[in-house]
Amino acid sequence: MAESRAGALLEELAPSLGLDPAPPRFPREGDLAVRLASHPFLMAPMAGVSDAAYRLMARAGGASLAWSEMVSVAGLHYGGAKTWELAVPDPAEPDLAVQLFGSEPALFREAAASVLDRLGDRLALLDVNMACPVPKVTRKGEGSALLDDPERAAAIVRACVEGAGGAVPVTVKIRVGRRPGAVVGPSFARRMQEAGAAAVAVHGRFASQLYRGRSDRGLVADVVRAVDVPVVASGDVSDERAALEVMRETGAAAAFFARGSYGDPWVFSRAARLAAGLGTLPPAPADRVAALALHVRLLDACGAHLARARSLAGWYLKGLPGAARLRARAFECVTLDDYLAFCAEAAAAAGEGA
Fold it and tell me: Which residues contact residue 273 at a Cβ distance below 8 angstroms, ignoring those fewer than 6 apart?
């Protein structure tokens, strides 16, 4: 594997934070259900969040596998460099689950083959987004709009399976329905299984809810009972206890951490410890600030825009002494040196509040 600046940073700084500088790959051998059962704590795809730096922090924190941001099959078709940046892992990443979105089966077939060719054995699986509720996506018949078009959705899955040629599993991420009163999760998931999906991730909200209200675990459980493939539970997995609860209550094989991983890359390893009957402790304030500094360095090393660090600062510093003032200060930062000076200020504030 080619060396990367990100890999060197992890090797230097991760161990002192209780993070793994060289996390293992997601298992390749055996049935996907078996692999997920032994590696159930996953980093969800999050638009505008799950870039390479975020994925590296999550994997270092114990995530069994991390998903890319949504990758447009049309963007890949037209050879967009910016689109390909979303699909290609940093050299320090052990592997990657790439999530595709669009509405044309032929473009999915092409994208599946292209991504596999580009990533090779670093591609862990291909996932199809049928859950995104954002209007600019759904108005094109993409994302959660596919819940209203199971024939097209099934054709997309079949196209991905054909494009991947059996080299990697093809999975789907869905919602329980477009709107309350129109639950389609169980029947839709069965159709995706019949089309060749090796697993189904289900968010327990309706698309019309966006991220408001509560995720309905009962509706997730209905999907679990409807299919023979493993189900990944998504929605309101806020911490390690919530992950184990949703898996126990729904029968899901695995759980997606999304917002529950904000500013907390250790949540994955805490979930694994809790599942093993071991004790867990929250990260110390000083470690949270040091992890923020590492995360910002990784953003820079991976070529991401450092403006993303402003959101990171709010997540990592939540609940720390003077957090509101520090969040305001983060918006004044522009360069890497600015952010590192900011982290030193936050570390001093954390020490004073200890």
Answer: 240, 279, 280
Secondary structure (H, E, C), 31-74: CHHHHHHHCCEEECCCCCCCCHHHHHHHHHCCCCCEEEEEEEHH
Distance CA 92, CA 49 (A): 18
Which positions ≥6 away from 92 have C-beta within 8 Å?
A: 1, 4, 6, 7, 10, 56
91 Cβ contact partners less than 8 Å away, ≥ 6 residues apart = 1, 2, 3, 4, 6, 7
Active centre residues (catalytic): 132
220, β-bridge pairs: none
User: Which amino acid makes up residue 261?
Assistant: S
Distance of CA 4 to the CA centre of its chain: 22
Report pLDDT digits (tens) over 207-231.
999 999 999 999 999 999 999 999 9
Can you state the angle between helices 336-352 and 285-301, rounded to 10 degrees?
A: 170
Q: Are 311 and 51 in contact (CB under 8 A)?
A: no
- For residue 337, pLDDT over 90 is answered with yes
- For 256-280, write each residue's pLDDT tens digit: 999 999 999 999 999 999 999 999 9
